[in-house]
From TrEMBL:
It comes from Meleagris gallopavo. Its main location: Golgi. PANTHER family: CARBOHYDRATE SULFOTRANSFERASE (PTHR12137), CARBOHYDRATE SULFOTRANSFERASE 10 (PTHR12137:SF2). GO terms for cellular component: Golgi membrane. The lineage of its organism: Eukaryota, Metazoa, Chordata, Craniata, Vertebrata. This is Carbohydrate sulfotransferase.
Length: 362
């Protein structure tokens, strides 16, 4: 009887000990994972769990980013912990839209010489960059010029050299043989940058037809008059090219006959599909102008060149989508002309996750 009571007490004591240890362990786990950053920010366990392995391979730790390697002039933020997932989602969206047969005519194009002319090559670091004008491409070209060894730093590159393809040391993919082109498309790191399609068109219009740099007189003196003759409704209007004329030209299903006359100058306003063939070429990363402060260091890291060159400092606010500006430019345009314009650029909106403009839905 005494032995039985002794065993029961031992068993009861063991149970209490197990319960006590479980409570201590639970408290420890709660304290450990409640706020790992110590800033009280809300955590997203699902996202962090999903990107853990990719994060180790792709995202640099904050302590690695010394002052000289702060490409955008901003601190390396915790938002980049989510970037591998963000970029995977962008590529997945692209693949899904590319498979949409209803959008095939707007999402697919041949990998022609026109496309290959847009892709710049850095053989030394196995990188291909597709140029999409009016999306900060000048800075990326400077990055590649330094990587190719033509200049030792971005600050040394004269502005007149950046777009002079005979002097800047940037070969185009079209300059290689078919077999060499295929090899590079299969093996190299490939990327390009996009922005809201309508805001890009506004930027192209302002740069080429309003400000019109002195070294590009043909936009104002040759291209603008051709568009005006074909698309201006009020023949009594004597002003230079207006945005309404530009929109009417771009939205015309028969715009190609003018495009042929304009030659490669159309690269500033044709679709991303026509420039980079995103459904035919498997790109590694697609950056967005609106998130370039985070995308630029991510691209440099993903390409393995973050220790060799930095992306030039981005002026504050320059990448923010300006909804007010876009609505102001389109406020005087007829719904018919806006719908025709959207019909042409719908592939760009859908492929890269940009919303259809609110003023088009009203």
């Amino acid at each position: 009887m005494s032995d039985n009571m002794h065993h029961q007490w031992l068993l009861l004591a063991a149970c209490f000990w197990v319960i006590f240890m479980f409570m201590v362990a639970s408290k420890f786990i709660t304290l450990t994972f409640k706020d790992p950053d110590g800033y009280g920010a809300k955590q997203e366990p699902l996202i962090l769990t999903a990107v853990t392995k990719v994060e180790e391979a792709r995202v640099p730790e904050e302590k690695h980013w010394t002052k000289e390697f702060q490409p955008t002039g901003k601190a390396f933020t915790g938002n980049l912990l989510r970037h591998p997932l963000v970029h995977m989602e962008r590529l997945e969206l692209l693949r899904n839209v590319c498979r949409d047969t209803a959008l095939r005519n707007l999402s697919h194009t041949a990998v022609s010489k026109f496309v290959l002319d847009r892709i710049f090559v850095c053989d030394k670091h196995k990188i291909l960059f597709c140029q999409t004008p009016k999306v900060g491409n000048t800075q990326w070209k400077k990055v590649l010029i330094v990587l190719n060894g033509a200049y030792s730093s971005i600050d040394e590159i004269p502005e007149s050299i950046v777009h002079d393809h005979e002097k800047n040391g940037l070969p185009r993919l079209s300059s290689f043989s078919d077999s060499e082109i295929k090899k590079r498309l299969n093996l190299y790191f490939k990327f390009f940058i996009v922005r809201d399609p309508f805001e890009r068109l506004i930027s192209a219009f302002k740069d080429k037809f309003v400000h019109n740099p002195r070294f590009e007189p043909w936009y104002r003196h040759e291209i603008a008059p051709s568009i005006i003759r074909k698309y201006r409704r009020n023949r009594m209007e004597t002003k230079g090219l207006q945005f309404e004329d530009f929109v009417r030209y771009l939205g015309d299903p028969n715009h190609r006959w003018l495009d042929v006359q304009f030659g490669d100058h159309i690269i500033h306003w044709v679709t991303y599909v026509e420039l980079c063939a995103p459904c035919e070429i498997t790109y590694s990363v697609i950056g967005h102008h609106e998130t370039l402060e985070d995308d630029a260091p991510y691209i440099l890291k993903a390409a393995g060149i973050d220790r060799l060159v930095s992306y030039p400092t981005i002026p504050p606010g320059i990448t923010v989508y300006n909804k007010t500006k876009v609505e102001r430019y389109f406020s005087g345009i007829s719904k018919r002309d806006i719908r025709r314009l959207y019909a042409r650029f719908e592939g760009d909106f859908k492929l890269f996750g940009y919303r259809e403009p609110d003023f088009l839905l009203k």
